[in-house]
């Protein structure tokens, strides 16, 4: 089946209406483009659950602050379409900003709970309102049965899961394990910003989190393990925004070691900000 490109909501709904009439299920994979194997794995996982998959490509201006990298965020529409088509997408939705935010648009979805956990929200206060607004729109516009999100953006996964539940949007949000390079670095569109030297240094973020998780499982107290990972990263040239252990579902600070735990980090190498997380 040939991949179909659509740029308007009307064209998208013509496709999804046909699928519904045929009794088909479908998944949506929201992206901002710069497609890599992490995204195509989301497509692959969507194909295991649903009859059809829609990928969306939209660089959402509402989740970037004025000082952030909206203008230089990597864009390659032709390459993205080719990769998504090869991965098995049935429809690729490429709306314009005007299609998503038409003149007079004035509604924002604002979240608390995991969106106010003192992680990404502390350093990017506008981020999750922008994420929730665009993701809610894409959930409603596509009407999909499933939404596929990577665990690399772990707080985002918990935020959109909670949002869909709270707003009674009839979609199941599926978390997909982080896709990594052979040496362990989490796949990210922003990895292209790393110099050759920084690319090697970047390996430490996953290894330090993995070692911290092992130490916690071995009996080291949670705060000590997080501090140790922080010191390791700082010694290797990172500027650390946070390394912390949280409840894996709520992102609240854990009350005891028996809860499901996740160690989560964000740190800078030069001008590139990296995030990662590991289950404890």
Task: Describe the structure in your own words.
This protein has helices spanning 9-21, 37-49, 77-87, 97-100, 120-123, 127-142, 154-166, 196-201, 203-217, 222-235; strands spanning 4-6, 26-31, 52-57, 91-93, 146-150, 172-176, 239-247, 261-269, 272-279. The chain has 280 residues and is of the alpha/beta class. It folds into two domains: 4-176, Rossmann fold; 194-273, Pantoate-beta-alanine ligase, C-terminal domain (Pantoate--beta-alanine Ligase, Chain: A,domain 2). It has a six-stranded parallel beta sheet, sandwiched between helices. Strand 2 (26-31), helix 2 (37-49) and strand 3 (52-57) form a beta-alpha-beta unit. Helix 6 (127-142) crosses helix 7 and helix 9 packs antiparallel against helix 10 (222-235). The longest helix has 16 residues, at 127-142.
Alpha-beta classification = alpha/beta
State mean pLDDT (0 to 100 scale): 95
Assign the CATH architecture of the largest domain.
Answer: 3-Layer(aba) Sandwich
Count of helices? Answer: 10
Q: Round the Cα radius of gyration to an integer and report it.
A: 19 Å
CATH class of the largest domain: Alpha Beta
Number of self-contained structural domains = 2
The CATH homologous superfamily of the largest domain corresponds to HUPs
Q: The biggest beta sheet, please?
A: 6 strands, parallel
Instruction: Note the overall shape.
Output: globular
Query: What is the count of β-strands?
Result: 9
Binned strand content? 15-25%
Give the spatial strand order of the biggest sheet: 1-4-3-2-5-6
- SSE order, one letter for each helix or strand: EHEHEHEHHHEHEHHHEEE
Fold-level CATH name of the largest domain: Rossmann fold
